[in-house]
Amino acid sequence: MTAGRAVAPVRMEGRDGFRAAARRVADLPGPKRWPLVGNTLQLRRRAAHATMESWARQYGPLYRLRFGPYRAVGVSEPGLIDQLLRHRPVEVSRSPRISSVINETGFAGVFTAEGEAWRRQRRLVMRALTPEIIRTFFPVISTVTARLQARWRALAASGARPDVLRDLKCYSIDVTTWLTMGLDIDTLSQESSSLQADVETWFATVGRRLPQVLRYWRVLPLPVDRRSDAAIARLHATVDQLIAGARAEMAAQPQLRERPRNILQALLAARDEVGSEFSDQDVHGNVAVMLFAGEDTTANTMAWLLHHLAHDAPSCAAARAQVDALLGRSLPTELSGLDGLDYLEAAAIESMRLKPIAPVQGMRANVDLDLAGLLVPRDHLLFLLPRICATQESRFAEAQRFLPQRWLDGAAEADTDDRRSMFPFGGGQRYCPGRYLAMVEIKMVTAMVLGSFDLRLHAPAGGVVESFGFTMAPSALPLDFSLRA
Questions:
Q1: Pairing of strands 62-67, 361-365
Q2: What is the rounded distance in angstroms from the CA atom of residue 331 to the CA atom of residue 440?
Q3: Residue 345 host element (H or E)
Q4: Alpha-carbon gap, residue 386 to 357, rounded angstroms
Q5: Can you tell me the distance from the alpha carbon of 91 to that of 378, in angstroms, rounded to the nearest whole number?
Q6: How confident is the model at residue 1 (pLDDT cuts 50, 70, 90)?
């Protein structure tokens, strides 16, 4: 770049000729700001996403925000969201606030990495999550699903209500840990899993600290912060034990360095290569990423899907009829056994449209941007709000209703670009590497539930409250499981 020469902003276009309402961010409409803190105190804990979405409906697809010294733009226009995701990780990157809060807990890995460090680490992660690997690994998914089925059958037989959210998170931890580390930790069969509780505390800690302007916990930790720090310390000890166990196994079987059987072994082999750019911290952080992967995202996606099916009897009956016809009351032992469950897959897509686990995605402009005519200076924050465009009546008929049939072949939405108005797994180069595994888990667990149980939701549809921390989860899921006759 020639010194003193102006660089044109990176230009992005909206859909259908969309143009920004202003040229400068300062001229955009937006909520009234308070002195010093800006809009920070207007965001309610656990409901910040709902406030930001309400502002998008009030002020439009581009609006201005401020959080302390940080200037930001809310973005809900689907074409711009799509292009911003595609411009990661160069022109746009994850909000440094997110990376900073996570890295502060000591678990820096592929999720928070940027640039070449991210590319190097992602290649290793992707090697463990290909469709072929999942196909080979499927018997383990079937085994863990059978454990969940047995647990819920025993509870149903005794008339007890399962802790659905806790069990789904344990299920996801067990699947992911077995796949990426070769370990069957079986938190699901434990009445009280300290590991699952500590992982849950980590997610809650990150979600609680993200919106804080002042990092008070560094100088004046509250009791909740001391409990969080203790849980994080236990997680570090667990990760160290996993790494030590893998190193001992590789020392006993040197061939594993050439042909590692899981991603943990691959990380260690890469770390120990002569001239390796991997560090012990890279290994430690990515083992934690694998431990956390899916615990919140996949589990909450399954929870929202069960919530929708329990509340919508016709959709539940249609999904169950297909499960009964293809699987009966059995669990598939091969991945191909899930083929043909198109209604169930459509129900999962529809649930993610209405209840995305990431309703707000924070990013930073690394260069000057031109968003359909709006000039966004470098270092401005961008908050993507994908649910706004995914629930607009102009894009989806009866947009607020749970209608899985809209995604089946021949339905209008399935044959148009409206699917591109949804971003359940992100987009661009940083598209979720675990999306294939997630969909397999979602279909497997939901098929098991429909084949084995009758569902009853002990709350009106509006009574299950969205709770947004690191991801968006139901605040509670009061489901009864009764054995099918």
A1: unpaired
A2: 13
A3: helix 342-354
A4: 11
A5: 9
A6: very low
Cα–Cα dist 454/459, whole Å: 16
Q: Could you give the dihedral angle defined by the CA atoms of residues 206, 209, 213 and 215, in that order, rounded to the nearest 10 degrees?
A: -110
Q: Which residue has the tokens 């084995």?
A: 452
Torsion of CA 169, 172, 177, 182, to 10 degrees: 140
Its pTM surpasses 0.85 = yes
Tokens of 346: 């459509």
Sheet holding 374-376, edge to edge: 10-12, 369-371, 374-376
Distance CA 270, CA 280 (A): 10
DSSP state, residue 34: B
- Entry field: residues in the chain: 485
What band does 461 get if pLDDT is binned at 50, 70 and 90? Answer: low
Domain boundaries, the chain: 10-90+360-387, 122-357+391-478
How many angstroms separate the CA atoms of 171 and 165, rounded?
10
Q: Distance between CA 368 and CA 417 in Å, rounded?
A: 29
> Which stretch of 117-126, 133-142, 247-256, 465-474 has the lowest confidence by average pLDDT?
117-126
Q: How far is CA 129 from the centre of its chain?
A: 16
CATH topology of domain 122-357+391-478: Cytochrome p450 (1.10.630)
189: pLDDT strictly greater than 80:
yes
In Å, how far are 57, 77, 195, 479 from 29, measured between CA atoms? 12, 15, 46, 42
- Cα angle for residues 229, 293, 350 (degrees, 5° grid): 125
